[in-house]
């Protein structure tokens, strides 16, 4: 898994096998790589639908922006660089200002100008609904894949950077063929509880 340090966006949910110290440790480890949100276990599929699958949606959007630039007369290399940097710049503004994306959109949309014409075209094409539907579809698909995981799995869905991949704890070198039952986890050492509670079997790409 390759990504830039600080760019991780993930969710995790400690289960009954975890002590507060265990959960704090995992939160600290993930937080050192970027942003980690402690969520309810019932929300993990939504984390997968949004953050886990999200890079693919953004890649499609960047590709579409680039295609539009090519259609308008730009070369492919120039169009792709402009598209990618535009997306990065817009995302940085959302994160740094803390403003609602809609407010930022209004700040760069002049009455009767080029941007509102483009925004109107996107609304006519149903972009907003299409993106929402994509997140919902991926969220609804996630439980079917998650059913193959051990019952003690409590974390999945993190993605980061251009080479995103699902994160598993403990690392592959420490993983066992199968997760131990919760009863064994609770009775074991802190290391064993952490190993059980944050186990994810090897998974293929979604």
Short description:
With 206 residues, this protein is mainly alpha-helical. Helices cover 55% and strands 5% of the residues.
Describe the structure.
The protein is mainly alpha-helical. 55% of the residues lie in helices and 5% in strands. β1, α1 (20-31) and β2 (34-38) form a beta-alpha-beta unit. α2 packs across α7 (127-146) and α3 packs across α4 (76-97). Mean pLDDT is 78; it is low at 150-205.
Secondary structure layout:
Elements: E1 8-12, H1 20-31, E2 34-38, H2 44-52, H3 54-71, H4 76-97, H5 101-107, H6 114-124, H7 127-146, H8 182-187, H9 190-197
Parallel strand pairs: 1-2
- Described by its quaternary structure, the protein is single chain
Number of strands: 2
Task: Give the mean pLDDT.
Answer: 78
Low-confidence stretches: 150-205
The general outline is elongated
Helicity level, as a percent range? 40-55%
| Major beta sheet, strand line-up | 1-2
Tags for this model:
206 residues; mainly alpha; two-stranded parallel sheet; 55% helix; elongated; disordered C terminus
């Amino acid at each position: 898994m390759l990504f830039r340090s600080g760019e991780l966006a993930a969710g995790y949910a400690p289960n009954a096998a975890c002590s507060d110290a265990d959960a704090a440790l995992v939160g600290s480890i993930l937080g050192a790589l970027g942003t980690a949100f402690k969520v309810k276990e019932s929300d993990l599929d939504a984390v997968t639908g949004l953050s886990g699958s999200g890079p693919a949606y953004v890649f499609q959007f960047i590709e579409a922006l680039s295609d539009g630039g090519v259609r308008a007369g730009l070369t492919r290399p120039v169009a792709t660089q402009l598209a990618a940097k535009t997306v990065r710049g817009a995302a940085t503004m959302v994160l740094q200002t803390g403003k609602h994306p809609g407010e930022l959109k209004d700040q760069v949309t002049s009455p009767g100008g080029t941007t509102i014409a483009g925004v109107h075209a996107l609304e006519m094409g149903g972009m907003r609904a299409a993106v929402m539907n994509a997140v919902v579809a991926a969220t609804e698909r996630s439980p079917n894949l998650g059913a193959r995981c051990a019952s003690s799995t409590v974390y999945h869905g993190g993605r980061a950077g251009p080479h995103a991949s699902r994160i598993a704890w403990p690392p592959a070198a420490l993983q066992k063929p199968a997760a131990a039952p919760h009863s064994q986890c609770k009775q074991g050492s802190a290391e064993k509880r952490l190993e059980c509670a944050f186990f994810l079997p090897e998974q293929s790409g979604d």
